[in-house]
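Our consortium's second objective concerns turning raw sequence data into structural hypotheses that experimental partners can test. To show how far this objective has progressed, the report includes one record in full. It was chosen at random from the queue rather than selected for favorable results. The single chain below, 417 residues long, was entered without modification.
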Amino acid sequence: MNAMSLVPCLHADETIASFASRTAALHEFPDARTFASLLGFDFVGLCRGQTDDVKKFAKIIGRETAELQASLTVFDFRWSITVRGHALSKEFVAWNQNRVCPGCINDDEETLPGRAGTRAYSRLVWLPRFVRACPVHGRKLVETGVWNWQMGADFSARLRTGRRSFDELQRASHELAATDHERYLVDRFQGGRPSGHWLDRFPLQLAAHLPRLVGFAQNPRSFLSADPSAPERAKVASEGFAILAGGEDAFRDVVLSLIKANYRPREEFCAKTILGNLSTELLDLQDHPGYADALSLIRETAADVVPVGPSDDFLGTSLPRRMHSLHTAAREFGLPYTPPAKGRRRVRASCHRRFLWGSFPGCFLGRNRRKPSGKDPEVGKRDRRASRISRGSRVLVGRLRRTSPKTSSPSNEPTSG
């Protein structure tokens, strides 16, 4: 088959689906799927980046397959889409390619060469959902409406036959200033140089996701709208982005603050009860690039202050034990332990405080350890050392002493003769 002589211009920031759709419109086909079936390739397969369909389409338009790589949107079995080397899960990308900027469409039809109705094209930067506003016009990206998924991402046909007219799209779009976080993400998506931010070490999706989780963890709130582009959600992500500018130490501080607020030594715990959405959302996407590294940082930070061990499934894996609580020590050594009842809280209060001081650093709890009683400094020093070694309370130390076999002291043995 000879290559087509009449094809539109392929723009550097255009999706492959948009280019094929404009080619079909240029040849006056009603839709791109009919155009593709006549020429022997699958338009939906081309939209998903399937190799065979990409090769056939490249041959039809007289281009090398390598020339189309930058425009591809490649689907995989996890419903993840790779765009320009960035793997984005379905929650973070408009996989049906129905988001547009009315300002860009109007400029395309007025300034670009070609036949009317085939000049406007769909941009790659419109695909990520964390991009709320057009980088050129500073206006909100809007959706063209529901479209038959069997037709694929037929951009030109959608503009011609969409339920929302172009005037409606213009009215729905309004001025929207991008945050520092959003500008950072757009720059990375378009291949900009590293900015020196700590998030540069993570893939693009996690760089968009983690600041939102951190911002929400530091200032929990409820959202009135489920729209990912809602202003309050962008504000939360912007707050988290500012916090994470402090680097790895700032992220560890966030984890420690959650532990301090939610960990209860007397209660059963898991990652969800302590860390909330920070753990659940990262675990849901742990198979995606970069998420395992973020979970590893959380595990390492929590293991220093939370009594987790090999038998505990903490954030998807087990850890070597670094410390004990009353529960874990009693379970491991087979010692009887009954949580104090409400009526005995006052009696157990001092033991509970000693357990906390023996388990957590004083700087973490924000309080100083009490000095031993002045009556017997040696006894206080010995008990304090035992408490540090066992990472438990003096009550547990006393039970260990009582359950150990008694040995007679050499001084009490009867002397012969």
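The partners drew two points from this record. The chain is about 45% helix and 5% strand. The longest strand covers residues 80-83. Both points have been shared with the crystallography group to help prioritize constructs.
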